[in-house]
Amino acid sequence: MSIKQMLICGAAACVLAAASAAAAQDNQIEEVVVTARKIEENVQDIPVAVTAISGENLERKNFQEVRDLKALAPGMVFGGGNAPGSVNPSLRGQTQPDNTLSTDSAVALYVDNIVLPRAYGLRANMIDVERVEVLRGPQGTLYGKNTTGGLINVITKQPGSEFGASLRLSAGNYSAWGAQAIVNIPLGENMGLRLVADRNHHGTYGRDGAGRPSAYADNSFLRAKFKGEWGPFELRFFAGYTSSSLSELFKLRGLAPATATTPEGNQLTREAALELFGADTPAAWALALPIVRSYQFLPHYVSGGTFEARENDYARDVGLQMDYKLTDDMTLRSITGYRSLAFAFPDDLDGTPFTGTHPRRAAQDDFISQEVQLLGGDKHFNWVFGAYGSWEHGKEYSTTSTLPFRLTPTRLTQLNLTNGKLVSRSSAVFGQANWEFAPNWSATLGGRYTRDIRELISQNRTFFNGATFTCSVPVVFRPDPNFCLGTFSKTFKEPTWTASLTYKPSEDITTYVKASRGYRSGGQQYRGSGSVEAFQPFLPETVIEYEVGLKTEFLDHTLRLNLAAFYDKISDVQRSVIIQVPSTGATATVQTNAARATIKGIELDGTWRITHEFTLNGAISKIDPQYKEFRDFVLGDRSGEDWPTPKFQYSVDGTWRHETAIGDLSATLSWAYESKRNLAPAALLKTWVTQKGFGTLNGRVTLDVPSQDVTIAAFVRNITDKETFVAVVSFDRSLGWNVGAPGEPRTYGIQITKRLGAP
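Above: the chain sequence. Below: its structure as tokens.
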């Protein structure tokens, strides 16, 4: 769909709404208050593209985890990779190139105003949520680095003033079950405690080559929140714990074509020939190839892999926010956050019973952040100034056993070890002011200056037979040449800013123009190996975005339509490329600043409360990303390469609510579509790594019985049982094959919630 077509559709929606406008005095859409600019404001009045949804509507749409938000905000998708616990959000085409501790996201995730820097351990249920705000576009002024695409802000419910409790039990297909308890305890006139516990599980969606269950999940979640007010002083504290056990199924997805010297499937076929027939000859290849091929065409949720892949994630979170009102118009705020994360998983990345490549990976990461804000002003002129600091210390290692027969025909055991300690320190000062300088006119101006230090201690090496090894760290980087340990440090300094002009021709219309700059931090080469060039740090990626927006309400506030168009200029795009090592002529794959690019896009989202009982929501996005320059030593000019996000998305959902003699009956049906998406743009075999365009249909019916304080809900996800792939790992240009992870099949279930008081 072209931008012109999208505008026509938006205009048609307005005409249709006007034509069918019934008397709807009591059907007005509720005002949505957000804190996108650190103060409470009506979302329709601010020059920021924000999609906000309440916790009640999240439940009605049956959103169960962070990745379900892709059906909420225009232009949002989630990536995969070879880590089942990683979520990797993407907005406006901005994506994370890798998911190690040394690379950062383009979309930040905040929970109760505290950033969670890593994409692991975030797939636990979205539990007891007040609302979710999705801010689209660079947010580098108020939220700092790694928000070049935007951010997701999850605000959980605060303790209330009345005692209440709830218990929810759920069950569904694939042996799914869940239990959730919430207790709200007032501790006096101005204090309260809120406790949340959740345990949920779903059984296997498929089987691996050994007949073991695969693609299952088991999650546990605990959170305690305290809130107290003493005159001008307010304190909010929370502590949480998440534990997840996740399994992901990888299937063989395509074999590299044969050459004059290699068979179809290249190294995997040769490995299979050695394991099956003890020979690495054309005759043995011919016998092994049909067997290897057969694993491409197994049922969608069946893999030929026999190496068990299961990830275990653990996360502990602590947050403390303190507000002190210095005057009626000025508040001093302190926000302190701590997160400890650990994960470990072995993986099978060939989808066959042969030993193609079986990596094992584990990490432990601690992150501390501190922010101080001074907020002041009134509705005509308000401002925020602040300072931020964070410290992160992580350890990550991975071992890879690849093609043991093929690469070591003498049966030596070869094991590649990547082992690094990473330290990141960040500090920043920032300020932003919003000024209504004339009736209906306002301006925003803000800036931030950030200093990042990224350090790496690398002990990368290759072991043989578990006894001898070669060091992968060049001697020039080792403090002691006789010890395999290299040290690396790099400092980055970047300014970010925003400037906007807003005009409100009427109470129901807001227009704005905005320019902003954001950046994603640079980093170190955690996977560096063998040469000085392979350990060179990569620099920050920067984006300057120009945006125009229109926010409107029509038909006596029963129809809301918001439009945003943007143009991004991206410099030093972070991508993986192959370089040549001048000293040896060999090649190495590194993370580097490989490209320049632009992204043009348009987004339309809206809500139409057609009657008192029926509400319609929708969102459309279209982006046009283009590399202006992208070169690779081996692959050459990559400027025509696919962008790793869909170019077109839309979603629509309708909710019908009806008051019956028993209680409030509601039904929601939602449809979300995304166009084709190349999950591994650098792959040789495009067909096997590209997910064709598809739509997902979900539904939920809820009956609330106030007289019994009971709510009963039934839901179905992926009603059409669409078979998709959500992640791909590509080896077709090197080892000779690709693998893909299937998406979820159709699931359904029932939930029963019993309430006591007002939880």
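The helical segments are 3-19, 55-60, 266-277, 282-294, 404-407, 686-689.
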